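Consider this:
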Amino acid sequence: MTIENFLDSRRGQAMLWQRRKRNHQMFSVHIEPGAKNQMRQGGKDLMFQREVMQRQAEMQRRAFTSDLALELWFLRSDDRRSPATLANTTKNLVDLLKTPLDRSASNRKNVLMQDDRQIKLLCVHYTMGTSLGVPIIHAGARPMREMRQDAELALRILDDDFTYDEWERRELDRDLEKKMQELQAKPPAETCDEDTNESLLKFYREERAKAKSRGEAAMAKLGESWVLGRQQDSFLQLAGPTFKDWLKLLAPSRGVNYGSMPTGDILSEIERINRNMILSHPFSVDLRHQPSSRPEHLMRSKQFEQNAREALKDFRKRFHFLFPLMTQIDIVIIIIPSEGPDRIDLDNLAMPILKGISEVLKPPSTNIDAGEVSEKDLDSMPGSDAKTLLEELLRNKPLAPKHSVRMCQVVEFSRGPEDPREGSVRLMISGGESNPHTIISRIDGLLDAWYDSLDL
């Protein structure tokens, strides 16, 4: 067996993955997450930085100098103080991971990274109230090139794609051109047309009727919003991209974004078409061009905010049957940067979009989870007792920012030859109750389970 064949085997890929894991930097700090002014009180911002830098020193790690993937989990304690929004909390924590506030406490020039423009994948999860009863800020970072390699390995695991003999390779090569022709015969629709809209509406109404018929007693006690909220969540998950779709977007050898194939190559063209098909699913919103990060281009940024608001209003109009929203939502923001050096930080890009979602879509910040109360228990109660129970569950929920999303993920892709000169931004919306994990944690969970199953 050659070295190349070994590295392409399961054992070889497991070895490479374990080596990549050594480059991961993860920290969990028991400090209440919040915006800049909130964490400045009591010196929480300084405590957070010192804790991170102390652990880096113990592990003999330096700040990242290349592109990276960053995952943040905010777990607020169950207090009754008004919490900061996800956007403001994210902005503050990203800033704290750059330059030390107190340079006298350490000789380090940077905390975790040199500049937030290094972030090419940002995943943020916000939880109000923790089962541990203590606040936690969890941060995990790794080189972006290794994030792409992890995504490719996850995709290979799902496809069981580790052993191709020569005959299978020749068959695959012969099918490439045919597959590309089939894809080109069905170009992706940039917008959801009326027929698609009507079919979604018909499907939603049918499923809504089924939900009502399955739980009439529960409907009477829970109210229509509780059942419809679960139906909305299932519907949004069904129409959105799958886990494998996201892996195909991130995997370097499966997509045109990272230059693994020369321009014009058949496989590269297939993956470009796949990318556009995934990004144009029904619950995506085209936010047009990338906003500018330069002060002299303030009007362009203001125009982006206005475009985002108008696009969200159009989304609400097209999918009027989903509103008012009765389920929490998660969002993914895809950015293809503009030509030239004018790039925008991913956390700054997310702020006006999150503001527009709060004001236009108005998703609920908290819900009664399905695991907190069962329809069977409610059916056995008198109506007044069931109502009292539900009201108490809602009262005991921790305070949350009004109309906030639960999870926000932002990813930047490299430009392709056919991408617009001014760049593009696309928002993708999915249900926020059935999938509590970021794309990074889902990949890590799959790889950990796969590694444990190997007989090494």
Notes: The first strand starts at residue 25 and ends at 29. DSSP finds 17 helices and eight strands in the chain.
